[in-house]
Amino acid sequence: MIVLALPGAAALAADLAGRLACPWSQLATHRFPDGESLVRIDAPVQDRCVVLVGSLDHPDGKTLPLLFAADAARELGAERVGLVAPYLAYMRQDMRFHPGEAVTSRSYARLLSGALDFLVTVDPHLHRWHALGDIYSIRTQAVAAAPAIARWLRDQVPQPLLVGPDAESAQWIAHVAHLCSSPWTVMEKTRSGDREVRVAFAPDNDWTGRTPVLLDDVVSTGGTMVAAVRAIAAAGLGPPVCVATHALLDDEALDALRDAGATRFVSCDSVPHSSNAIALGPLLADAVRALARPSTSSR
Ligand code: R5P
């Protein structure tokens, strides 16, 4: 096996290769003046299982180099080519919300499935799709971040009350709450635009003495979490600790979250971010070990 780091993923690749006891190399890339990309594999890949590594936040600029790298690896004799993308893009466009729209979760899945033999990711946004296998035709593993998040909470937060900002977050909230033996609840979210989000929260119990922990899979503009932090304050609970599996937010959104009253914002290291506090490396390495074995079924 050899691990190849996609642009920006050297730390993740080095960590993973260390855990898998295999070599790693950085994919060399160059952007020509006309905007086209060159990718070059500088390590021997013949007869090896090649594991491309890199999160797919800001995916449009990352996807073509990824596809070129997968193709080059095959032409150079790789036995199998897989991808470890802790954050998997385009999962939230899982229906035609307006007439004529592309269902990009499905289109993106077709694109990656045509280039790869396997895919490892972390808590993909499965809402209307129930499993990656609904849209991906290759071997996939969706690693749950819950054990890592629960471990962090047990160390850092006394008496947590897990709160999710919307109905679809129940799947992650319930898992983490179970591992922490903590109560949990979810809010009701209405989104009317990219940054326009409302949440309704009516706590169904007296949570005195509990520390609210707001948990979401993706934080992008931060609009959902800011609205949820305000709803927690309005409900008379204490200031929350905020946790994201995939932190896509910029500094402005981080400030907005603090201004709204969040005491802390921490994230898993699926996407490099100043808030990273929860390591996913051990879980990813286990998943790669399981999936990178040769399959008896054909692709
Ligand atoms: C969608 O339902 C996701 O779980 C997140 O709640 C959403 O992507 C957060 O986006 P934003 O930070 O832009 O509100």
From TrEMBL:
Output the SMART domains linked to this UniProt entry: Pribosyltran_N
Q: Where is the Phosphoribosyltransferase domain?
A: 144-269
| One Pfam family linked to the record | Pribosyltran
Q: Where is the Ribose-phosphate pyrophosphokinase N-terminal domain?
A: 2-113
Q: Which Gene3D superfamilies match?
A: 3.40.50.2020
Q: Which InterPro entries match?
A: Pribosyltran_N, PRTase-like, PRTase_dom, Rib-P_diPkinase
Q: EC annotation?
A: 2.7.6.1
The answer to whether the entry has keyword Transport is no
Q: What is this protein called?
A: Ribose-phosphate diphosphokinase
Query: What is the scientific name of the source organism?
Result: Caenimonas sedimenti
- Taxon lineage: Bacteria, Pseudomonadati, Pseudomonadota, Betaproteobacteria, Burkholderiales
Q: Which gene encodes it?
A: prs
